[in-house]
């Protein structure tokens, strides 16, 4: 039987494209024949902005890339600059950075799983996820006054030391989260409908995933044991005991399970870091000078120079962000502004695989697969 | 014995000694039928108001139940515990601009919400809310209900087609496929009940469940027909189009399915129909399997009132179950849904019917 | 021996020079030999193409490829230098599917043409955008207005004539 094909524009305004992504779908009835993502609706020229701002001015812009988990973005850029300029970071600052980043990983996975479940039609999970996320955001608020866009990590340290009462609250959060994750697992993991929707959907083999340049939980869901925190340990990850969560099923369910496992692993890391945190309250490189530890709150804040000139050179520095490998390629010409900033965003590269993954599936499968890829459009379009 | 709501009204009027004089007046005018029509109109008005109030309450209840599951408060600002929120929603919807897309089929687009809404009301006619609280005890009540419910997919198809929107059309197609494949197990499960009672009348079905085994366990058909009950419940949730089977809307896939393009009062009509349908189907589940309005008779209180209370308690229990389910499970996929319908539910319903028929013929049941 | 040296040993004709990019070995490749070198790099086990960066140095362009090997856990960067007038390099889409979008992005923002790319169109900016923003000579003062036409295509203008409110 000869039937006409249907072109559907899913997005840029659609409930489950997580922002302003547009899928151009060529459909045969309910079956997807071809899927072309159309990007750029949120393009803000961050890389161009990078060339026009000084190194320190650019840090807040990195917050706006992946706004769900902004702290790793901060860190990835700062790490590139630190590698470029060869800046030593005090140990306590590294501990604080790891706390913030692992906390952010939990937040990111909560949002990711929540929105995935919402796209599948179960709205409860996102509310539960946001309930816990709120606690984490309050921790961030204590830490740096901001809830989502932090501008907290600076070259040579962090903006200020952790406030009093932060650690007990963090411990409370960890204890609470451990119980909550059990709740999520009970609600979702073995739900028959959920498994029907997720198993063998959006399958991508390990070879393909590598070839497409997928990273992060999406790659680990395809059975590749790869985590930059283990492979190229940065910060203090070398001293931390944790395992890389890998699943071999290669489907959407595996990617979901990797995220759940990773959240547990994050809590384990957080416990360790909190327990072994150095006492000395030095959170910035002495090269920049440290403010006295007593007196008005503003005096406690470490001093960071407004202008900062790393030597000329170029560096590519990657970290394991919650969504995958986040890299900054920074070229310095020895002035106060970077000559070129290239952002290798995990969302952008992971999204590459979507067209190949969903051909022959149906729209609901596209949504399930897309939800497990975990994309933030601020990160894709930059 | 008062058979239906008409006779109940007459009885109440007689009790207050106004029926005779009224009848005399109309008889003197030679227009007795006018009085009958007036009484019927009163019945319909009461039913209409009741359904509208129920629907408003249900929207509030849905939001509260969802909020409860998701550890939120839900509406809290308008009225005590947000009870007046549905009123505000209604006002908002009436105040909205009524948009008809430029390339839509204007007539059908306007007509479709009404075609959806009217069957949702008509379903209530043979539904017994309590002892003698029934508009009309049709002898083919169950058949009537199934037939009337079958109108709504047509209206949904009209709405989806007339919107001239791809999402609407896909939603409508899904709705039709779903309705067709789930009306069959629904009807088959209901027929098994009919075999037990030997009557399609809803009142007969309720009365057949009136007794109790050993004086304690009520003789509800859920105990005789557990498989039938499960099939009927699943099929009716599918027919209501609620999660996990809400394909006509499937918000995250098709934006809002067949009513993507609707706004204002037309949207409200779909909304009302959806919740009226939810109430009606829950009432039917209660009538067929949960003993309808039967329950312990209390002294000094008219049986009409106690039976209405029993009916409402049971119905709201079923509604609560549907809402609870909605918050717990994700949506299945359309092809999985059709598989489930045709490959599992229809054969099971046929098996259930076969076994029931055999046992009834053998005289074990009844 | 680091991978850059290994590559120089295997393909002496293609590698112009080798060096260190902060802590990652880097090899500068002749433009014509890029595809060969990439093929060799892939055979050496560098299966992860992390990023493609195009840099405008006013008088020339540099295209930098950062690779990683999952098996050996090593990094390698390849650099290709092109002239400024007509920047063209070979596309690596035949070797890495992930190169598709990365190359499109580089084309879009820096304006480097990738020969052999199956679908080299703009990815982030709308079709018809004037200029490549990450070039140093990009005109930052001219505003550009984008609307969507009847057929879904992007319409770009510099005077806003395509905007509804100007009608």
Quickly list its features.
heterotrimer, A: 382 residues, alpha+beta, Cytochrome-c3 Hydrogenase, chain B, three-stranded antiparallel β-sheet, 48% helix, B: 366 residues, mainly alpha, two-stranded antiparallel sheet, 69% helix
Low-confidence stretches of chain B: none
Q: What structural class do you assign from the helix and strand content of chain B?
A: mainly alpha
Domains of chain C, number: 1
Name the beta content range of chain C.
25-35%
Q: Most extensive interface, residues per chain?
A: A-C, 43 and 35 residues
Question: Do you know the CATH architecture of chain C?
Answer: 2-Layer Sandwich
Q: How many strands of chain C?
A: 9
Order of helices and strands of chain B: HHHHHHHHHEEHHHHHH
Order of adjacent strands in the largest pleated sheet of chain C: 1-2-5-4-3
Structural class of chain C: alpha/beta
Helix run count of chain B:
15
Percent strand of chain B: under 5%
Helix content of chain C: 10-25%
Radius of gyration of chain C: 19 Å
Counted beta strands of chain B: 2
The CATH topology annotation of chain C reads as Beta Polymerase, domain 2
Superfamily (CATH H level) name of chain C = NADH:ubiquinone oxidoreductase Nqo5 subunit
Q: What radius of gyration of chain B results from the CA coordinates?
A: 22 Å
Oligomeric organization of the protein chains: heterotrimer
Major sheet description of chain B: 2 strands, antiparallel
Set out the fold topology:
The complex is a heterotrimer of chains A (382), B (366) and C (167).
Chain A: E1 6-10, E2 22-28, E3 31-38, H1 46-52, H2 55-63, H3 70-85, H4 91-120, H5 124-144, E4 153-154, E5 157-158, H6 166-189, H7 192-198, H8 206-212, H9 217-220, H10 228-231, H11 252-275, H12 297-300, E6 313-321, E7 324-332, E8 338-344, H13 346-351, H14 354-358, H15 363-373, H16 377-381
Antiparallel strand pairs in A: 1-2, 2-3, 4-5, 6-7, 7-8
Helix pairs in contact in A: 2-3, 3-4, 4-5, 4-11, 4-15, 5-6, 6-11, 11-15
Chain B: H1 5-15, H2 19-28, H3 32-69, H4 85-95, H5 106-122, H6 141-149, H7 151-162, H8 166-197, H9 202-208, E1 212-213, E2 217-218, H10 221-224, H11 226-240, H12 251-254, H13 264-289, H14 303-328, H15 334-362
Antiparallel strand pairs in B: 1-2
Helix pairs in contact in B: 2-3, 3-13, 3-14, 4-13, 5-7, 5-13, 7-8, 8-11, 8-15, 11-13, 11-15, 13-14
Chain C: H1 3-10, E1 15-21, E2 24-29, H2 34-43, E3 48-56, E4 60-69, E5 74-83, E6 88-90, H3 99-110, E7 113-115, E8 145-148, E9 154-157
Parallel strand pairs in C: 2-5, 6-7
Antiparallel strand pairs in C: 1-2, 3-4, 4-5, 8-9
